[in-house]
């Protein structure tokens, strides 16, 4: 049966004349967005800028796209690229582990751990990454042997610094401890963004702190920190170009070495930029996958539920306010 | 009503607070609070804002530490262990175990936003109680059915109304099969028209003989389900007794004033509705 908007059966007292039919026909017309001058102007501007970019990129002989093409997949560039990727992956893994540990120390209730993490973050933030890389690479000049033992006393194990520190390990260590300091603060921010209620609900349900973090709090932290962390990781991946100062040949150093001989500066820098774009795209795809996975439940309501279905009047919940009557009766006395 | 005041004397209390004191700096949030709950009894805690109702409730399952007094569960001290002439707080692991005897329902629900309704209910049974997944899922679905949300099991909290979220929270607390259920103003974050659905679930629970302690402003509800009502002010229990007695003949001026003002408020609400 047809119902009116307020749920009563439609009474057929109104004439279903031609006016009603016309109204229905008009109501069936599809809805389009309003034509807008602003939109057309924006299209024209975009086309104009696009053409300029096209001209600059493809009709300017100085780019030397043929040279770019010949180097893009050349063995030397690819090996530099692989070094960059390797360095980025290792640095990210170690850096995030260090960051997690430092953040955990920073939030600890042991004063010693808190102080240690604060000192770490303070020093590492103060240090330009370039200086850090140089210091670690030349650490042998400062500490000839890494030894485990009693300070000022005997040592049990001695390893010469030169054996541990190579260009590669110095690069990984330097960038990791740098990323560690920055990511620690991001982790801490993520943890502090949790509402106290979430941790309390975990406690009330008897979850151990570890389980609470793995199951409930951690995923929420990851969701909160993904954009900031993606920034850090992408920054680190570009900062790998700094390791050229200690002679490690990653992507940028490789192309620099090539154009130092061939003088094809612009095409080779273009090759590097293209690869950086590719890697950044990958990182951003990863970021959006992470955000989608950990954002579940946080997206806005999928389809709003009609309010009327949510009220359960049928239960006959509570007698309406006996207290008022009780107290009213008392007042009369 | 399940239990009356007379039977409380003969049955060993399930929960007992003795001279419980809680301080925030110099401020005394709880001042020598004494309270016993018989198994299966329903206690409502009422009182003005800031009187220490939440604090009292939260000391029971050790979400707040206490500065004096003791809490006994089935006659055993919880939260502290006695060593000679001193007491020490129990280890975190022990506190966790003791806390499992209590289920808690919060004013703001505190559902886990990254899990569906059913996952919220089954998470702790699986990872704390070590239940198998199918077993927990079956129990969880049954509980969601009991609170009237069987068809919402795959919705995330953000897709549920406040009343529905709170009912999921009740199911989540029940899933751990606690002996005592604690409610902290479970309906005061809800729109008036959603209060009823939550109260009716709680009313049904009360009838099944569960021990419940409820902080509430719903006097009508308290009158219906409570065996005992506690009136608090400034960190103290001022009066306590069966709801009818307490509501009809408050002995202290403080309680008289409070009940009168609540009655006025609720009368206003009704005249608006
Ligand atoms: N962390 C804290 N630090 C200092 N004072 C606190 C803290 N938590 C609570 N208090 C104080 O303790 C007193 C009791 O608080 P409590 O939350 O138990 O009140 P309540 O009776 O639940 O009030 P309401 O009805 O508003 O929820 C209040 O005066 C409050 O200001
Ligand atoms: Mg409160």
Commentary on this structure:
The complex is a heterodimer of chains A (333) and B (273). Helix content of chain A is 66%, strand content 3%. Chain A has helices at 18-27, 37-58, 65-72, 75-106, 111-126, 129-137, 161-164, 167-192, 196-204, 209-239, 251-262, 265-294, 322-332; strands at 145-149, 155-160. Chain A has a two-stranded antiparallel ribbon with strand order 1-2. In chain A, helix 5 packs across helix 8 (167-192) and helix 8 (167-192) crosses helix 10. Chain A is flat. The two termini of chain A are 57 Å apart. The model of chain A is unreliable at 1-14 and 301-333 (pLDDT under 50). At the A-B interface, helix 9, helix 10 and helix 13 of A face helix 3, strand 8, helix 4, helix 6 and helix 7 of B. The complex binds adenosine-5'-triphosphate (ATP) and magnesium ion (MG).
Secondary structure elements and pairings:
The complex is a heterodimer of chains A (333) and B (273).
Chain A (H helix, E strand, L loop, with lengths): L17 H10 L9 H22 L6 H8 L2 H32 L4 H16 L2 H9 L7 E5 L5 E6 H4 L2 H26 L3 H9 L4 H31 L11 H12 L2 H30 L27 H11 L1
Antiparallel strand pairs in A: 1-2
Helix pairs in contact in A: 3-12, 4-5, 4-8, 4-11, 5-8, 6-8, 8-10, 9-10, 10-12, 11-12
Chain B lengths: L4 H6 L4 E10 L2 E11 L4 E5 L6 H8 L7 E6 L2 E3 L1 E4 L2 E4 L2 H8 L2 E4 L11 H11 L5 H14 L15 H14 L4 E5 L7 H16 L3 E5 L3 H7 L2 E6 L2 E6 L1 H6 L4 H20 L1
Parallel strand pairs in B: 3-10, 3-11, 8-9, 9-10
Antiparallel strand pairs in B: 1-2, 1-4, 4-5, 6-7, 11-12
The complex binds adenosine-5'-triphosphate (ATP) and magnesium ion.
């Amino acid at each position: 049966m047809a119902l009116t908007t307020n749920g009563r059966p439609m009474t057929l007292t109104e004439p279903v004349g031609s006016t009603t039919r016309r109204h229905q026909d008009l109501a069936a017309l599809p809805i389009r967005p309003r034509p807008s001058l602003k939109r057309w102007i924006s299209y024209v501007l975009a086309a104009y800028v696009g053409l300029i970019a096209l001209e600059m990129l493809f009709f300017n002989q100085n780019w030397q796209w043929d040279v770019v093409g010949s180097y893009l997949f050349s063995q030397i560039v690819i090996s530099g690229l692989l070094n960059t990727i390797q360095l980025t992956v290792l640095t990210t893994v170690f850096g995030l582990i260090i960051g997690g540990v430092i953040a955990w120390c920073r939030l600890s209730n042991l004063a010693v751990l808190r102080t240690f993490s604060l000192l770490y973050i303070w020093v590492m933030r103060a240090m330009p990454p370039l200086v850090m890389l140089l210091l670690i690479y030349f650490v042998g000049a400062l500490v000839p042997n890494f030894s485990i033992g009693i300070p000022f006393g005997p040592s049990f194990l001695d390893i010469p610094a030169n054996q541990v520190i190579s260009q590669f390990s110095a690069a990984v260590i330097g960038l990791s401890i740098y990323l560690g300091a920055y990511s620690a603060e991001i982790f801490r921010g993520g943890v502090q963004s949790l509402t106290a209620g979430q941790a309390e609900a975990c406690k009330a349900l008897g979850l151990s702190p570890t389980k609470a973090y793995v199951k409930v709090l951690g995923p929420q932290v990851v969701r909160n920190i993904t954009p900031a962390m993606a920034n850090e990781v992408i920054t680190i991946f570009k900062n790998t170009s700094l390791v050229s100062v200690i002679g490690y040949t990653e992507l940028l150093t490789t192309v620099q070495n090539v154009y130092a001989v061939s003088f094809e500066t612009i095409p080779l820098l273009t090759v590097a930029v293209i690869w950086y774009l590719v890697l950044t795209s990958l990182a951003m795809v990863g970021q959006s996958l992470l955000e989608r996975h950990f954002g579940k439940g946080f997206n806005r309501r999928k389809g709003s539920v009609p309010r009327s279905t949510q009220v359960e009047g049928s239960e006959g919940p509570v007698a309406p306010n006996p207290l008022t009557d009780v107290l009213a009766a008392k007042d009369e006395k | 009503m399940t239990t009356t005041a007379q039977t409380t004397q003969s049955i060993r209390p399930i929960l007992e607070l003795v001279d419980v004191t809680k301080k925030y700096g110099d401020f005394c949030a709880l001042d020598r609070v004494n309270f016993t709950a018989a198994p299966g009894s329903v206690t409502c805690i009422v009182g003005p804002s800031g009187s220490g109702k939440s604090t009292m409730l939260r000391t029971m399952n050790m979400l707040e530490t206490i500065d004096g007094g003791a809490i006994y569960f089935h006659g055993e001290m919880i939260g502290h262990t006695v060593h000679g002439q001193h007491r020490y707080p129990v280890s975190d692991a022990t506190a966790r175990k003791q806390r499992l005897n209590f289920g808690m329902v919060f004013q703001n629900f505190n559902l886990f936003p990254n899990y569906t309704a059913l996952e919220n209910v089954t998470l702790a049974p699986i990872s704390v109680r070590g239940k198998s997944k199918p077993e927990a899922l079956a129990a969880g679905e049954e509980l969601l059915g009991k609170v009237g949300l069987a068809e919402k099991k795959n919705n995330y909290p953000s897709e549920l109304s406040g009343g529905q979220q709170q009912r999921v929270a009740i199911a989540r607390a029940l899933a751990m099969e606690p002996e005592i259920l604690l409610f902290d103003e479970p309906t005061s974050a809800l729109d008036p028209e959603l209060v009823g659905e939550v109260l009716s679930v709680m009313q049904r629970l009360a009838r099944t003989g569960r021990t419940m302690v409820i902080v509430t402003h719903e006097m009508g509800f308290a009158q219906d389900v409570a065996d005992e009502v506690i009136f608090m002010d400034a960190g103290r229990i001022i009066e306590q007794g069966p709801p009818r007695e307490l509501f009809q003949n408050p002995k202290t001026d403080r309680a008289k004033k409070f009940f009168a003002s609540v009655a006025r408020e609720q009368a206003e609400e009704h005249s608006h509705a």
